[in-house]
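Box 3.1. Reading complex inputs
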Amino acid sequence: MTSPPLFTDDQIEAGRKLFAAPAVFVKGVVGVQHLPPGDRPEIAFAGRSNVGKSSLINALLSRKQLARASNTPGRTQEINFFDLADGRLFLVDLPGYGFASAPRKSVDAWTRLTLRYLRGRATLKRVFLLIDGRRGVGEVDLGIMGALDTAAVGYQIVLTKIDKLKASEASEIHLGAVAALKRQPAAHPRVIATSSERGDGLPDLRAEIEALL
Ligand code: GDP
């Protein structure tokens, strides 16, 4: 990618420090009545099943196994809360969507728990919506973006697995994602391209999150 630097060295360093601090799994939530108190800022990660969400959360935290594998039975529909830096931030892992064959149906299932959470969560600063760099923004993702727009929850696109793309393909997907965002009122215009395997974009994403606090 040939994007200009997004953040200053100081911002990158602040992001690094935030994510080098202790991260602790707090709880998995299956109903809104079990949400932890909204007593600190929080950011959430969402994306299709298999988009690379667990890998990205673990890579951000430089941990191998903090975010549980999404394909563990019974955990897929939980909202998982992690405390970062001794109470500075909740990092929230939302259920993966789009696993059923019918897009509408899977969006509806995702919507039930997750939208209830999103609508009522005043401390939620931003949702990072993960898009597989090889697939680009799909129909199911657009449905989720529409749901986030309706709930007036600010969100930002993060492309994953860009190590699997040639630079020219990555630029094309990047531009496609930016274009898709122009029609979505709650979307942040900046798209961050990442690879959990190679580390691309992780310092920027950490800095982006730190800047939100
Ligand atoms: P989740 O379902 O969204 O939590 O996805 P996972 O994190 O479990 O990843 C799904 C698959 O994509 C796994 O086989 C990962 O090894 C692979 N994967 C995740 N991130 C990357 C990445 O940055 N690069 C590559 N090449 N593969 C990745």
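In summary: Strands lie at 23-29, 42-47, 79-84, 89-93, 124-132, 155-160, 192-193.
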